[in-house]
Amino acid sequence: MSMQSTDHRTTAQSLWRRNGLIWAGLMLLLTLTLILAYVPMGLLTPAAGIVIAFAKAGLVILLFMELAKARPLIRLAAMAGVVFLAVLFALTLADVLSRFAGR
Amino acid sequence: MSETTGLLKEPWQYFDRQREAGTFGIWVFLASEVLFFGALILTYTVCRIENVAAFAAAGRETNIWYGTINTAILLTSSLTMAMASQAAASNEGLRRLILWCLAATAALGLAFLVVKGFEYREDIERHLVPGAHFGLMPTAAQLFFGLYWIVTGVHAVHLTIGIVLVIRLTLLGYLNKLQIDGNPEIQVTGLYWHLVDIIWIFLYPLIYLPGRAA
Would you call B4 helix, strand, or coil by DSSP? Predict the structure, then answer.
């Protein structure tokens, strides 16, 4: 990737402001997931934990790892892992969950 | 702006290409890491689907304070790592900031391992190690703790590698043996560090949160 192309200079303050905000969001999500874990909502309780984990991971991947402004080649490499993981989960769980449906 | 010609290495002709190749290479490696940890998490998922009650009972036995504090520590280390990486990429002469953020990242990583060590000691004292002296009643709870030891152990190994890499950059930079400003090595190390954090982000609800609402 090329150097910063923005017209304003990158300063320590501008970096702390940007990344501090993302960090605050991550901490907020951590607090939220901790509280929700104690609320009995049936299957929604574990689901909330996973959904919030995806939200936190999304913030880290897109903003801390800067995938949001990465070139297509980089995005493709990142997506490859996720796509094959999705195949792994989909095929395995299709088997496991359909066995349970019959019981 | 610092001069980056000193950072150019064989076989690259241009610095931007070298930076691009480094980033691409680490992302390919990270994709393989996603599959490695993903397979372990899938094993956990299948075991949990088949033993819902035992996993809830086992999850309740983990120490939520150690887990939550460690999650906060790792998320904060990602902040300092992102600061170092972006400051280095900006090439604006923020050397002091970069070195301080790298040092803070390594320190937070070590803090995570110390907390984990206390947690492991408590787990061992409470007989949460699968085997003949396992302390919980449902037999299937051993599946949970078997996976707990494997996944957190492998994660700790990954984190240790990250800490070594970050300390290396900090020391070489501090001793002026390595140009810090504009150096793509910091970005590449940072991407690895963030992945280790992301894996923990997913482990946290799977290990520490089951069975709390009951």
Answer: coil
At A39, phi and psi to the nearest 5?
Answer: -95, 120
- Confirm or reject contact between B31 and chain A (CB < 8 A): yes
> CB B25: neighbour CB atoms within 10 A?
12
State mean pLDDT over B130-139: 88
ipTM of the complex: 0.93
> Strand runs (DSSP E) across B58-205, as ranges?
none
> Which stretches of chain A are DSSP H helices?
12-36, 44-59, 72-101
Among A21, A26, A35, A97, the residue to mutate for chain B (most B Cβ within 10 A): A26
Whether B165 maps to a domain, the answer reads yes
User: What is the C-alpha separation between B115 and B63, in angstroms, rounded?
Assistant: 11
**Are the CB atoms for B202 and A57 separated by under 8 Å?**
yes
Please tell me the pTM assigned to this model. 0.94
* Domain ranges (residues) in chain A: 1-70, 71-103
8 Å CB contact between A17 and B82: no
The answer to whether residue A58 neighbours chain B at the CB level (below 8 Å) is no
What separation in angstroms does the CA of B59 have from each of A42, A87, B183, B209? 16, 27, 43, 7
The whole-angstrom separation of Cα B70 and Cα B72 is 5
Identify whether B23 is part of a domain.
yes
| pLDDT tens digits along B20-30 | 999 999 999 99
**Distance (Å, whole) CA B44 – CA B148:** 9
